[in-house]
Amino acid sequence: MVQAIGIDVGGTLTKVAFFEHNQQLKLLHFPSVDLHIVSEWITSYKEDIQIGLTGGRAEQLKTFLRSHENLQYLVEFDATIAGVNYQLKKDNHEFTDAVITNIGTGTSIHSLKGTEHERIAGTGIGGGTLLGMSALMTGIHQFDEIVELSALGSRSEVDMLVSDIYFGNKTPIDGGLTASNFGDAGLRPLMERSKEDVLATVQGLVGEVISTLSIQCAFAEDIEHIVYIGSTLANNEPLQKIIGNYTKRKKRTPIFLTDNGYSGAIGALLSKIDGK
Q1: Fewer CB within 10 Å, N side or C side of the chain?
Q2: Is the separation of the CB atoms in 39 and 61 below 8 Å?
Q3: Distance from the first to the final alpha carbon of the chain
Q4: Dist. CA 255–CA 59, nearest whole Å
Q5: Annotated catalytic residue 157
Q6: What is the pLDDT of residues 3-55, one digit of tens each?
């Protein structure tokens, strides 16, 4: 019997977390454009079920749930950090200080030191950028297809590296670093590029901007570990590889949680389980 549900209503996806009768954590997601489907799923349970609700579009979902009296809204940042702490323990990580980078439609970056946390940075570059740029440049709208095709592409003839600028001369910084995302694209028309290469380069742009900002925050806060979370990373090995490699290159430790898109929903669930 399900007694409580945690819901994170994001700009693109609505994530749901609950414990089944055997105390196994169950995770689901729905498109946020179809909130009536989410409400129908919830109302299939008894009306007195405990609901923890968070996320940017939580107020919209609440309009579908007026009959539910046991509904509590949580500040998104608080719910996300609570979920991250739960997941870190579940994945056997023992550190207490970390930069938390939440890659949703945009990206929000937090400092976690023990039990204290605060938002320290953010950027409009995120999953919305990945989907939007991919659609505009290739006509492909589906996330799974973008990920699949990007894994087959190469950024080598679209991005401009530091070494490309110096033409074999000694570079003042690592020549393998990206000097300009899409910097070589002007040398040949876009229609002559393969969709795979373009999508790989979009992933590179998103990954490098987010990891660069996260690394700068980690240095400023004197923190080693950067925990990358968010639905944009789910089953997105190319993006995880870009972010992970760049973070390691800059002498910081990247952490990718097992269920990296569900931290907010898990935190919202825990608020009802723990009686907070």
Answers
A1: N
A2: yes
A3: 21
A4: 32
A5: no
A6: 889 999 988 889 999 988 768 899 999 888 888 888 888 877 766 788 899 99
CB burial string 10-24: b at 16+ within 10 A, e below: bbbbbbbbbbeeeee
All domains of the chain, ordered by start, with CATH?
A: 4-79+263-273 (3.30.420.40), 123-256 (3.30.420.40)
Phi-psi domain of 235 (left: phi exceeds 0; alpha: psi -120 through 50; beta: other): left
- Tell me which of 76, 118, 157, 196 is the catalytic residue: 76
Q: Residues 126-160: pLDDT tens digits? A: 999 999 999 999 999 999 999 999 999 998 888 88
Scored b (16 or more CB within 10 A) or e, 155-191 reads: beebbbbbebeeeeeebeeebeebbebbebbeeeeee
Angle, helices 263-273 vs 76-90, to 10°: value is: 90
